[in-house]
Amino acid sequence: PPPLAGLRSRWADQPADAGGCPAGPDQSRCLFAAAATAAAAGDTATAAGRCRAQTAPVSREDCFFRAAEAALQADQPLAVSVALCAGATQFQGECLSHLHAARADRLGALSPAAAVAATAAELAALERFWAETAPDAAPLATAQYLYSAAGQLIGETGIAPVVWAQAPAALAPHLRTHIGRRVATLDDPWSAARSLAAGQPVALPPADSAAFRFTVGVGADDRRPKLALGSGTRYRLADPEPARDLELAVAQALADLDRAEPRTAALDQATRLRPGERRWLHQLARRRH
User: Fold this and answer.
1) Which alpha helices (DSSP H) does 106-171 contain, by range?
2) Could you give the dihedral angle defined by the CA atoms of residues 72, 74, 78 and 80, in that order, rounded to the nearest 10 degrees?
3) Tens digits of per-residue pLDDT, 96-135?
4) Which of 138, 114, 137, 113 lies closest to 125, judged by CA?
5) Residue 178 near residue 227, CB atoms below 8 Å
6) Is the separation of the CB atoms in 264 and 286 below 8 Å?
7) Model pTM score
8) CA-to-CA distance for 241 and 173, rounded, in angstroms?
9) Which residues are CB-contacts of 73 (< 8 A; sequence separation ≥ 6)?
10) pLDDT of res. 216
11) What is the DSSP letter of 154?
12) Quick one: CA dihedral 214, 216, 222, 225, positive or negative?
């Protein structure tokens, strides 16, 4: 079920209210803007009324999604955005992942020490909020935030020692996920990954220089140990042992690269993959080739 299914009923009795948006070809656009303005002011009831006035179901759900983002951009409490995400119905998962990614994006302007301190504080606040709001959604919600935060904590030459020293334990697997993606195009991704995990500097390509298909991964119903990749619709294989978990992160990133020739030779250099994992990753790396 959607992660906020229990909150959806809060808008079931909300009357549709177009406000000052007259009927006509421009009404939908007007309703989007009016809902966003109300959400930015923290007025969820008015925002919901405008969204429910959308005649097309998809526009209605998208309206709640955009209103939730507008509330977050205006620094409204997370509860305001989450309440509006509840009205996004089929887009709830994407709405929540956008919220958590937007909160993590603010880390990019901070020093490594300030960023890791802010990450720990935000994580604690998120855990409290979700435990009180939608306990079943809490594990995925905090994983979404940590996944996004980890990407902000890896710079041009790696991960600052203060990050490894002070990061919450729950952040480490997500740092390894992003290490895999940052080293996937290097000549020797394995040595680079181990150096980064040890806090040593490595010259890295820009975060957006490699193209990934983002389709490789296991599903939520897979019983193997796994870690959410952003939206929570895809996962990577994971392991509680850090060295093996790092190798799984790098291997899955190699298999997920979108390039003319798959990096199967680099996959063969992995030393901790189980036979079934190696075969599976080889198959995924060759997909679309």
Assistant:
1) 112-133, 138-152, 161-166
2) -100
3) 999 999 999 999 899 999 999 999 999 999 999 999 988 9
4) 138
5) no
6) yes
7) 0.90
8) 10
9) 40, 102
10) 64
11) -
12) negative
φ/ψ (deg, to 5) at 235: -135, 160
Q: Which two tokens stand for residue 139?
A: 């594990």
Tell me the average pLDDT across 196-217: 86
User: What does DSSP say about strands 235-237 and 226-228: parallel, antiparallel, or unpaired?
Assistant: antiparallel
pLDDT at 1 over 70: no
- Estimate to the nearest angstrom the gap between the alpha carbon of 5 and the chain centroid: 20
Is 288 a residue whose pLDDT tops 60? no
Residue 178 · residue 154 · CB < 8 Å = yes
Q: Quote the crossing angle between the two packed helices 57-73 and 27-40, to the nearest 10°.
A: 30
Query: What's residue 214's pLDDT?
Result: 66
22, exposed or middle or buried, with CB in 10 Å at 0-12, 13-18, 19+?
exposed
SS3 assignment, position 75? coil
- Two tokens, residue 280: 């599976």
Q: What share of the chain is helix, strand, coil (3-state, %, to 5)?
A: 60, 5, 35
What pLDDT digit, counting tens, does each position of 225-258 carry?
Answer: 999 888 777 889 999 999 999 999 999 999 999 8
Per-residue pLDDT tens digits for 168-191: 999 999 999 999 999 999 999 999
Cα 262 to Cα 282: distance, rounded to the nearest angstrom: 9
- pLDDT at position 5 is 79
As given in the structure block, the two tokens for residue 245 are 């978990």
Indicate the burial class of 116 (C-beta count within 10 angstroms; 0-12, 13-18, 19 or more): buried
